[in-house]
Amino acid sequence: MSSLLSIGGAALSFPPPAAGRRRPIRGGAEAGGAALSFPPPAAGRHRSIRGSANGLGSAQEAALVRRAAEVADLSAGFSAPHPNSGCLITMGWDVVGQGFLYAQGTKCAELQAVEMAGGLARGATAYLNLEPDDCYGDRTPVSSLVQAGISRVVVGLRHPLEHLRGKAIKSLRSEGVQVDVVGEDLNGKVFEEALKSCLVVNAPLLYRTACHVPFSILKYAMTLDGKIAASSGHASWVSSKLSRGRVFELRGRSDAIVVGGNTVRRDDPHLTARHGGGHVPVRIVMSQTLDLPEEAKLWNVFDAYTIVATQRGARKEVQKNLARKGVEVVEFDILNPRDVMEYCYDRGYLSILWECGGALAAPAISCGVIHKVCAFVAPKIIGGINAPSPVGELGMVQMSQALNVIDVSYEQIGPDMLISGFLQPIPDLSPIIPQADETSALDPAVSPYDTKIISFYKTWDLYGALSNFSPHPVWMPDEDGTYYTWSSVEHYYQAHKFVGVDSPQAKDFIEQIKLAKSPEEAARLGRKLQREHPELVRPDWESVKIEVMYRALKCKFSMHPHLKSMLRSTAGSVLVEASPHDLFWGGGREGEGLNYLGRLLMQLRSEILKENLELRAKSS
After folding, report:
1. Which residues is 256 bridged to in the sheet?
2. pLDDT tens profile 81-136
3. Domain interval for residue 348
4. Which of 414, 451, 501, 515 shows a CA-CA span of 20 to 30 A to 407?
5. Helix/strand number for the chain, H first, E second
6. How far apart are CA 217 and CA 419, in angstroms?
7. Same domain, yes or no, for 475 and 576?
8. How many Å apart are CA 510 and CA 494, to the nearest integer?
9. Does 176 lie in the same domain as 69?
10. Strands of 351-354's sheet in order across
11. 415 with 200: CB under 8 angstroms?
């Protein structure tokens, strides 16, 4: 069989990566300078593999691991960044199945690959760029490979999250599947290059795990003489159209784009991805004084969400005006890049793109929150003593003080040259744990004096299955009473904003949300339609939304017994939905949120525990 595969009707071909395109990373387990600690393999397991169970040589095996990383990278730009997981299933050299994680809540890469392979999966080998996770408690990644009859699994990278590292590998081996891990069981120069590919494709997750801040890229375009604009400030356009297309791709891979007030005043940018995918990054403006124009393209939040980060107490009237337009204003005691990135970490962001000018780029670098630089160099000379440069004053007076960029790569894009590389790792920053109170009334098992807090947010967290974005369908009635299998609780909740409204357009909104490819897309679509068409939102929504959510939660945990067991296991703990920005369903960044999702889960847990006690009493 050819290695040309079809997904969703689109033929995809995966040739080996072009020489020089993958960025080298120093050290076996070092992602662009951020040292990561991995436990050594167990004694007696370290061995070199000259051949393999499927008869392939080392070079061929390493190429398949690299291709698994490339398949994983296909997900970038379609949904909010997440751990990039890709799976290839092969018989010999032929690829018979593949899959990649599209978003939180979609089928895992392993399940997609075995479904594509069908009967050809029996006795085949699966190549994974990243160890599978088991965040949902249902072992789908492992069980799908085992049930399909996969005889051998090659893992490029152990999972960097501590609660997942080694778990799937151990489970697969316990099922009799041979598992070979690159760098432990598979060694040699070719496998070092394969490991680098796996590290690069998951750089955002690796940096977030190691450094406790989102992975940040500083991007700029400059002339050959190092100017990002003319002396007048005019900057359209420094780079070519092809380079600007690459910038749109970078935006599509990011959770958020950061600019300063100068950029808003001077350029009035849109900062949209324009790549045709579903993911739209958040736009963040950092402005200490809020000296911002009353009207700007960034204040239009229908197509993309905007956050303005400012100093506490700055120009309250401007804050009120921005809030009226739908812009979120976040105040900081002292506005600086480090605190803003810590805030973005708390929001669950993995990847940030900085498109700011030199005045903001310099403190961001000084704070240690920039991990990578992408510089588009155009073959132009503009001159000008006062023309701005990409990085402002760093306080360095000798060339020996210059920051070295490591693992540098070069790529020609039209007439321009893209030079990219990594900066030094940054110190760890600890997230703030949201607090909650008034919980003993919801669940008597919780002691107000000795409380353990379990927070959850992203589906790859230890208790990520408690999230509405977890991939657990619920069988609930439609607006006409007909039962329908909703892809997730989030799909059901967002669609019910428009249930019962006598309007063909509202019914169309419900269908759109039903068909959303992931919970992320359902949430984004539901919120967008609610903002744009408030007249089509059911009039009783604010009074019934808690009831709607609780119905869906009860169905979710009744349909999936392993989730009910997980919820029972949290008895005695406060459950906090650790969203820093949703102050109704979440706990907020500093415990200021109402945490209604956590409260409903604790209430449901109390009911489940009570039912168990009653059943035991009857049986005895």
Report:
1. 282, 352
2. 667 889 999 998 899 999 998 777 778 899 999 999 999 999 999 999 999 876 55
3. 212-393+401-422
4. 414
5. 17, 22
6. 13
7. yes
8. 8
9. yes
10. 328-332, 306-311, 282-286, 256-260, 351-354, 215-223, 372-378, 416-422, 406-413
11. no
pLDDT for res 80: 58
Pairing of strands 256-260, 328-332: unpaired
Q: Are residues 264 and 386 in the same domain?
A: yes
Report the number of distinct structural domains present in the chain: 3
Cα 443 to Cα 316, 439, 599: the distances in Å are 40, 6, 9
Question: CA 29 to CA 383: how far, in whole Å?
Answer: 43
User: CA 280, 282, 287 angle in degrees (round to 5)?
Assistant: 150
Residue 432 counted as domain residue: no
Q: Are 304 and 383 members of one domain?
A: yes
pLDDT tens digits along 268-324: 998 987 655 567 889 999 999 999 999 999 999 987 899 999 999 999 999 999 999
In this structure, the answer to whether residues 539 and 583 fall within a common structural domain is yes
- Among the options 61, 70, 110, 355, which is catalytic? 110
Q: How far is CA 30 from CA 136, 406, 495, in A?
A: 29, 12, 44
CATH code at 499?
A: 1.10.357.40
What local confidence, expressed as pLDDT, does residue 14 receive?
32
Report the distance separating Cα 298 and Cα 264, nearest Å. 8
pTM: 0.66
- 82 Cβ neighbours under 8 A, 6+ residues apart: 75, 101, 103, 104, 350, 458, 460
State the DSSP code for 98.
E
Backbone angles phi, psi at 69, to 5 degrees: -65, -40
Instruction: Give me the pLDDT at residue 402, please.
Output: 87
Structure tokens, 245: 């297309």
Question: Please, what is the Cα angle at 276 between 275 and 278, to 5 degrees?
Answer: 105
3-state secondary structure of 31: strand
pLDDT value at residue 436: 38
Does the CA dihedral 262-365-305-342 come out positive or negative?
A: negative
At 590, the amino acid letter reads E
**CATH number for 331:** 3.40.430.10
CB-count burial class (<10 Å; 0-12, 13-18, 19+) for 539: exposed
* DSSP letter, residue 121: G
pLDDT at 521: 87
Domain boundary among 189, 206, 223: 206
Asked if the structure places residue 34 within a domain, the reply is yes
**Tokens at 483, concatenated:** 């039962």
Beta-carbon neighbour count of residue 231 at 10 Å?
Answer: 13
Low-confidence residues in the chain, pLDDT < 70:
1-56, 77-82, 134-138, 274-278, 424-451, 479, 589-590, 620
Residues 190, 229: one domain? no
- Tell me the CATH number at 158: 3.40.140.10
The verdict on 218 and 171 lying in the same domain is no
3-state secondary structure of 407: strand
Which of 282, 333, 288 lies closest to 309, judged by CA? 288
Domain end among 152, 173, 206: 206
* Residue type at position 310: T
Task: Give buried/exposed letters for 331-351 (b at 16+ CB in 10 A, else e).
Answer: ebeebbbbbbbbbbbbbbbbb
The predicted structure's pLDDT at residue 50: 34
Q: Is residue 440 part of a domain?
A: no
Whether 511 is catalytic: no
**355 and 489 share one domain:** no
